[in-house]
């Protein structure tokens, strides 16, 4: 019997006509994949991928978080679709199609995923767009779902020898209500426990960390708790930008691939990490875009950077993710100085996170009564998004395999993440995925705020070129 965690449910509750919680990926394949073959592959492998064979079982009156229930009659003709691009079938047409697909909400009466085969891409290629709801998986879980379609050779591997597991059915309506009432009775205690645990982490929580004295209080609480002195985090009130505030219902998507070898050349030359280079490239691109659209602020942007709690030893089903905020030094003109600014900020955040993983988002979700969570989440998103958005942009870097992968014999050439933008996180999301010698970057924007996402994608290439030029001028 599997029930959504409070954090999983948050991704359901904050959805509106404009805030959409789909996470997705666009794979470019060498060859024209056959829909029947893909459905046959899924038929063999779906029993081993729980996230793709579950649908929601709501609790009466919304008294508790929904349960997951096994879908016995999975309609692959519904979940696996195919469309075609008109000639010439170029990358912009492909991205426009993905933009439209990504803005559509998933049907909550079915398992929360869809796959689109996109034919007609020039050069004998095709697109494979895979979409799943954030309530079902986090970034790591989403990678596991994608892995169910992939093989390390052109010949698909046979399914595992062991029998697939099967979730126990959810409880009946009466038991759901009883469990929900029991959880409701325990919520005040959970809220008090969250409040006590949150005090040492006030400087990690967006908006709260801006309150005068919050850093002093959290530091004192950590010392009193015997936790020692943790690295201080910068106070980051987010400057207003053209992509701050409530998002519309429409998306723009663009993508770019950067040679991973070039990223590593910069990493080695300046003694930083690959992630530092990725963050600095994003900062450089955003600086260039802001310079062309209203001006560069005199302070860093605030980036929302997701961290997997699984890496910190937190296990369990559903979303195990935390959000940390990091400064992006768009106000620094010199690309090398910008890189070192990013490196210093990210190191402080990593040091802090290694000592005290940021679990506040999950614990805050657990402290809220399930019956009020939907209204509270939507109201909070609307209020914060319109008054004081804590984040300007979401940036993420996901390491992937450095060898070729295949889908039904077709080689995976590139894989671009297609992620989430919200009222709170701003109208731009830049997510990178490293695969087989390439850094594949997907850029999602709000159509009204950043009408041409391709401009920002080109700025990413230019920002890496800036760093490569600086590397070339170093004495060797």
Task: Describe the structure in brief.
The chain is of the alpha+beta class.
In terms of topology, how is this protein built?
Elements (H helix, E strand, L loop, with lengths): L1 E2 L2 H8 L8 E9 L4 H11 L8 E4 L9 E4 L5 H4 E5 L6 H12 L10 E9 L3 E9 L5 H9 L25 H26 L15 H11 L26 E9 H11 L3 H19 L8 E8 L12 E8 L6 H21 L4 H8 L2 H18 L5 E6 L7 E2 L2 E9 L9 E8 L2 E9 L6 H20 L4
Parallel strand pairs: 5-6, 9-11, 11-14
Antiparallel strand pairs: 1-4, 2-7, 2-13, 3-4, 6-7, 8-15, 9-10, 12-13, 14-15
Order of helices and strands: EHEHEEHEHEEHHHEHHEEHHHEEEEEH
SS element count, helices: 13
Class from secondary-structure proportions:
alpha+beta
User: Helix fraction?
Assistant: 25-40%
Structure description:
It is a single chain. The protein has helices spanning 6-13, 35-45, 76-79, 91-102, 139-147, 173-198, 214-224, 260-270, 274-292, 335-355, 360-367, 370-387, 453-472; strands at residues 2-3, 22-30, 54-57, 67-70, 80-84, 113-121, 125-133, 251-259, 301-308, 321-328, 393-398, 406-407, 410-418, 428-435, 438-446. With 476 residues, it is of the alpha+beta class. Strands 5-6-7-2-13-12 form a six-stranded mixed β-sheet, sandwiched between helices. A six-stranded mixed β-sheet has the order 8-15-14-11-9-10. Strands 1-4-3 form a three-stranded antiparallel β-sheet, with no helix packed on it. A hairpin with a 2-residue loop joins strand 12 (406-407) and strand 13 (410-418). The chain is globular. Mean pLDDT is 83; it is low at 210-218 and 312-316.
């Amino acid at each position: 019997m599997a029930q959504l965690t409070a954090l999983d449910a948050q991704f359901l509750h904050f959805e509106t006509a404009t805030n959409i919680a789909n996470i997705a990926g666009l794979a470019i394949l060498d060859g024209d994949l056959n829909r029947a073959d893909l459905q046959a592959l899924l038929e063999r492998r779906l029993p081993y991928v729980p996230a793709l064979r579950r649908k929601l079982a709501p609790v009466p009156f919304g008294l508790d978080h929904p349960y997951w229930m096994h879908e016995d009659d999975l309609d692959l003709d519904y979940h696996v679709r195919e469309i075609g691009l008109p000639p010439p079938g170029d990358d912009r047409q492909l991205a426009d199609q993905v933009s439209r697909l990504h803005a559509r909400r998933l049907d909550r009466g079915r398992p929360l995923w869809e796959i689109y085969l996109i034919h007609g891409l020039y050069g004998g290629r095709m697109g494979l767009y895979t979409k799943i709801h954030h309530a079902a998986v986090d970034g790591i879980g989403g990678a596991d779902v994608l892995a169910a379609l992939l093989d390390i050779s052109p010949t698909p591997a046979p399914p595992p020898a062991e029998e697939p597991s099967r979730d126990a059915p959810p409880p009946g309506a009466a038991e759901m209500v009883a469990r929900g009432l029991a959880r409701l009775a325990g919520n005040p205690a959970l809220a008090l426990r969250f409040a006590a645990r949150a005090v040492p982490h006030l400087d990690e929580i967006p908006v709260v960390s801006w309150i005068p004295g919050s850093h002093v209080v959290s530091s004192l609480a950590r010392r009193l708790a015997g936790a020692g002195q943790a690295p201080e985090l910068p106070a980051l009130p987010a400057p207003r930008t053209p992509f701050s505030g409530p998002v519309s219902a429409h998306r723009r998507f663009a993508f770019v691939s950067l040679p991973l070898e070039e990223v590593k050349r910069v990493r080695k030359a300046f003694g930083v990490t690959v992630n530092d280079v990725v963050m600095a490239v994003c900062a450089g691109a955003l600086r260039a875009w802001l310079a062309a659209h209203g001006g560069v602020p005199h302070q860093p942007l605030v980036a929302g950077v997701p961290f997997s709690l699984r890496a910190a030893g937190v296990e369990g089903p559903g979303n195990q993710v935390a959000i940390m905020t990091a400064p992006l030094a768009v106000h620094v003109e010199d690309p090398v100085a910008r890189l070192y600014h990013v490196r210093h900020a990210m190191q402080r955040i990593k040091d802090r996170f290694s000592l005290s993983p940021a679990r506040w988002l999950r614990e805050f979700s657990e402290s809220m009564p399930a019956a009020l969570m939907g209204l509270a989440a939507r109201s909070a998103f609307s209020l914060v998004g319109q008054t004081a958005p804590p984040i300007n942009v979401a940036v993420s870097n996901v390491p992937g395999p450095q060898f070729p992968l295949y889908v039904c014999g077709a080689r995976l050439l590139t894989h671009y993440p297609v992620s989430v933008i919200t009222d709170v996180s701003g109208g731009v999301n830049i997510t990178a995925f490293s695969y087989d010698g390439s850094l594949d970057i997907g850029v999602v924007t709000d159509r009204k705020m950043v009408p041409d996402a391709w401009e920002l994608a080109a700025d990413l290439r230019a920002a890496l070129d800036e760093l490569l030029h600086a590397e070339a001028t170093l004495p060797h």
